[in-house]
Sequence to fold (340 residues):
Amino acid sequence: MPSMLPGAPWLLAHKSMLAVNQPRKLSLHGNDYVMWKDETGTVQALPNACPHMGAMLSEGWCDVVEDGSSQVVCPFHALPFDAQGCTVLPGKKQKTLPQLQPLALVIQGDFIWSYGGYEPEVPIPTRLKEIADTYDFIGHTADTSVATDLLTLLLNMHDYNHQNGTHRHLFQITEVQFHQFIDQGHQSHAFYDMPTAAYTWTEKLRKPDLFLLPDTIKAHLENHFPSLVIFHGETSLGKVAQCHLFVPEAEYRTRTYILLFGQARHPAFKVLGSSYLKFGKVVVEQDVDILSKLYSNTPQKIKLNNEVGMDWVKRNFANFPAVVEPNLSRGDRPQVDNCI
Ligand code: FES
Ligand SMILES: [Fe+2]
Fold:
C-alpha cells in the first residue's frame, strides 16, 4: 500500500530554487501550495487554491509591501494574500481574518523543510546544513515530478544493481563491486565501486564532460531515511556531495531533485560544476525512464546479491516511524562515522 510516511520531514526546496517575488507551486501529501520568497529572503507558503473562487495563486504574482515583505496576488480577481492568509477586500481598509492556513515551514539556512502539517515523528537531518557549511553550493538540477509512489522511488535509489543497467549508457559501467553496508537505523552508508569501460580519446574530446569520469567510480552513499540520499564522489580536482531529495507529492506522484555541493582541490573544479549538474540530470532522467517501464505489481521471484539497501528501505518503511534495531550491516570495509 503506498504511503507518504506522515510525520517525516521533507525538504521542499533550497532557497536558490525560488526566484525573488515569483510564486511557485509545490505539492506535499496530496495538497498544493504556493510558495514565494521576498526580497529579504523570507519564504512563505499558503494553500494554492484562492478562497474566493479557487484560482491557483501560484499563477499570480507578488506585490511588495513597505517593509520589503511581499504578498501573493491571485491572478483571477487580484486579491492579495499576506503570509497569514489575510486579504483586503475592495473598498475596505481593514485586513480580513486569515482565509488560508499557512503551511508550517522549518527554515534551516537555505533549506526549506516541512512536515506538511503533520505532527513531527522524526527529526530533521542536520547533515545538509553541515555540508552547506563546509562545501560550496554548486546548484540544483533535475527537479522532476515522477508518476510513482514514494516507496518505488526510494527503492530505485537504494538499488545498487541498477547502475550497470539503467545508467549503463552514461557511465559505461561494467559491473558493481559491492563492499559494505552500515545500518544505523534510519541512517545508513553503502560503499561500492563501479569500474567503467574506457571511453576513447575521440569520444572524450567530443564530450569533454567525460574527462570527469574516473576509471572506477567509487561510490559512498550516505542515506537519511526517508527524504535524503547523499552520493559522495571524489576526483583529483575535488569532492562532490550530490544530494538527492524526495518529496511525496501525492500517493502516486513523487518529486525528486538534486542539490550539488563541492569542495575544490584545484581551481579547475569550479568550471566543472555545470558538468556535474549535467550528469546528475541525466541520471535522474534515466531513473524516471525505467520507472515508467515497470509492471509494478509483478511478484519478485528473483533476488540478486546486494539488495541490502532495498531491504533497509522496506524495513524502515514498514516500521515507520519506529526505528528498528539495526541488523543489516555487512561487508569488508572498516567502520566510518557520518563523515568522509
Ligand atoms: S479567485 Fe482569487 S481573487 Fe477571485
Ligand atoms: Fe539510478
